[in-house]
Amino acid sequence: MSIQVALAGNPNSGKTTLFNALTGANQFVGNWPGVTVEKKEGKYKGDKEIKITDLPGIYSLSPYTLEEVVSREYLLNEKVDVILNIVDGSNLERNLYLTTQLLELGIPVVVAINMLDVIEKRGDKVNYVQLSKELGCPVMPISALKNKGIDEVMAKVKESAHRSFEAKNIYDKEINSVLDQLSHLLPRSIDQHITLFYSIKLFERDDKIISSLNTKVEDESLIQAIEKKMDDDSESIITDARYSYITKIIKDCYVKANRESLTTS
Ligand code: BGO
Hints:
Blueprint: E1 3-9, H1 15-23, E2 27-31, E3 38-44, E4 47-54, H2 66-77, E5 82-88, H3 92-102, E6 109-114, H4 116-122, E7 125-126, H5 128-135, E8 139-141, H6 150-160, H7 173-183, H8 195-203, H9 207-213, H10 221-230, H11 234-253, E9 254-255, H12 259-264
Parallel strand pairs: 1-4, 1-5, 5-6, 6-8
Antiparallel strand pairs: 2-3, 3-4, 7-9
């Protein structure tokens, strides 16, 4: 049975290096429909049943850049069995921002923490088991450049395909209460596994997604009430919640080698 993998990650996370290591000469380069953003597809060298689409490098699934729009439309509208999220492990905090969003799509995610050689050279320690527990998905260390850990990560991709995957909800009770009420405005055609993502987009007033859904938030009072209470706009409320979650994860799972010398000097 064939497996469709979407390779997603921040610019400079090593995505191109990984895509080349995975596919070798089995690559097809074109453009995303209607835009001049390069689209690369290929088959995994170790198993030709695994097809990989390289998404443009992005920091977020918001609607502000062409790359973000192309990536999220692909993830929402095409049949993707697994998202392979490459993360620059030497820049974990910034890279996990995209990860939190990918985990909201209800599509199985496998996280590959890249730059293992850099992490090891620095003497930093990542607790991959704990990170996997906290994110609720497999997390594997790799070095795309040194070709390390790649077969292991692809074994996890294969294992995760065609399994159900529950969207990771990191929001507090108050935000969730609003998201839950907004979810009732979603068209019935929206599958249960992806309601969290779409409810967040209604909350954030994401025009592109709202018009694609053919729906409207007629009564904004519940969004406005939480904005007033938190003294922030809805989009920033979501961003802050994601960063608070990431800060907690980093504290639990990442130890910098020079932390002690920094605090004692
Ligand atoms: C340059 N380890 C290390 N150390 N570097 C890696 C690894 C890894 O596991 N994986 C990738 N890189 P892209 P995007 C470069 O190009 O794949 C490096 O944007 C340089 N170039 O080699 O392009 C990779 O597709 C000159 O580095 O990322 C590349 O996601 C000096 O990370 C960079 C130093 O990888 C980005 C590095 C002329």
